[in-house]
Amino acid sequence: MKALVTGITISLTASVTAWTMASGEIEAVLQNSFVAKNQATMDRLQRDAVQSACSAPRGMPLDNDMLASLRAERLDAVVLPADGEYLGDWQRGAEVAGNGRGLQSSDDPTQPNGGNCYACHQLAPVEVAYGTLGPSLTGYGARGQSVAMLQYTWTKLWDTHAYNLCSHMPRFGAQGILTEQQLKDVMAYLLDPASPVNQAAE
Amino acid sequence: MKRHHLGFAFFTAWLCSVPLAADNGVFDQYRDLMGDDNPAVFVIDEGEELWFTPQGPESATLEACDLGLGPGVTAGIYVRFPRYFADTDAVMDLESRLVHCMTTIQGRDLEAVTAKPYSLRGDFGTEMEALVTWLAAESEGATIAPEQTHAAERAMYTLGEEIFFYRAGPHDFSCATCHEQSDMRIRLQALPDLTSHTGAADAWGSWPAYRISQGLVRTMGWRLRDCFRQQRWPELRMGSEASIALQTYMAVNAAGGTMTAPGLKR
């Protein structure tokens, strides 16, 4: 406990008085507070550049230049589908959107990961059990299938930080949560006119 | 008695409608039907009995345990946690303080008493769950007022805030991902805004809680561990610094609210 108290320094800026811990200190606390369980290994507690930049408690001063260059970096790193085909099978995409499993210590690592889109987004009007952390995507297909729209949607799914740094949404492509084929299937679920996402509510 | 039957009938119907199980409207109806009836009452009784049961090599009860207001005092202690204890020179939550008393007063083995603090589905509740439930009930109706006088207690709050916003794991989730906005939900499950007084008071003040879907009383320590499982992080250790820090962050944000635990939840 004493080590913790001395590890905290006061950082004073023009408008905000904040206590901040050195990154190494908080990582040491976390290393001592968690244990690896099944596929949830301890290396998951190490933050990458995006995670570090997006971990500031509210009211903490941010380095806007750093954030802008980080966002540009993420945009450059987006990998578009190798064969140029963006749209897969909307029916398989529906399964990905409704599946909340994958990468938890309690999940079977031999099973495919889900995208759990419904945890945060409204999609097909017939599904009433949708979350509200993200915007409603009902009727998304009305945005059309222009190349610009396809690339925009793919990029949001691949790495949301490329457009909206520090968005709450996971980086489904960049972090390897979903496969390229699963992403194509989710694209079809969003954009195919036949998908339930694009059917009017009864 | 009539109300019990109604509650059970409703509960059965409710269990059969799994997709709607998280709907707050339906759940609120169920809670209204239950009224003051909470299956946690049996766990409260069990916890009280355990407190007065001699255990360990010392064959001692926990009556000499000082939970902050003096040895043996149980009324009103829970709302003061987490707090600094001079004898251990550490900020402790109720669970880690109980472990301390079990090892020092009863002479029990540390690994044995920490091996399985929380029950698995299908189990009966654990000793820790029963003790925490009774001790929380001993603060029912009291104002949440965690200690923040010692520098270590204030540092623990700061650490808790930093961990609350710490994004990590394959999904980049922090506590804040789900708990820094008001009136949001995951699927149909409403999410408390733990950065606000109202949200923190509702959450901190209603755990430990009887989870109907699991048939068990769960403590805040378990609640945090299960949040991290869903965050795709490794497993949170009971009584760890991160656990105590996050509980301090919540309790201080909740200060002034009312302790209503044990709660009744989905």
Shape of chain B: globular
CATH architecture of the largest domain in chain B: Orthogonal Bundle
Strand content of chain A: 5-15%
How many strand units of chain A? 3
Please give the share of residues in helix of chain A: 25-40%
Q: What is the fourth-level CATH superfamily of the domain at 90-198 in chain A? A: Cytochrome c-like domain
Oligomeric assembly: heterodimer
> Largest beta sheet of chain B: what is the strand line-up?
6-5-8
Q: How would you sum up this structure in a few lines?
A:
The complex is a heterodimer of chains A (202) and B (266). Chain A is mainly α.
Task: Record the SSE blueprint.
The complex is a heterodimer of chains A (202) and B (266).
Chain A: H1 2-7, E1 8-12, E2 17-21, H2 23-33, E3 34-35, H3 49-53, H4 64-76, H5 90-98, H6 147-158, H7 180-191
Chain B: H1 2-15, H2 24-34, H3 40-51, E1 83-85, E2 90-92, H4 94-104, H5 110-114, H6 127-137, H7 151-164, H8 175-179, E3 184-186, E4 189-191, H9 197-204, E5 209-211, E6 216-218, H10 220-230, E7 235-236, H11 241-254, E8 263-265
Parallel strand pairs in B: 5-8
Antiparallel strand pairs in B: 1-2, 3-4, 5-6
Helix pairs in contact in B: 1-2, 3-6, 7-11, 9-11
Task: List its salient traits.
heterodimer, A: 202 residues, mainly alpha, Cytochrome Bc1 Complex, Chain D, domain 2, two-stranded antiparallel sheet, 7 helices, 6% strand, disordered N terminus, B: 266 residues, 2 domains, 3-stranded mixed β-sheet, two-stranded antiparallel ribbon, 11 helices, 8 strands, 9% strand
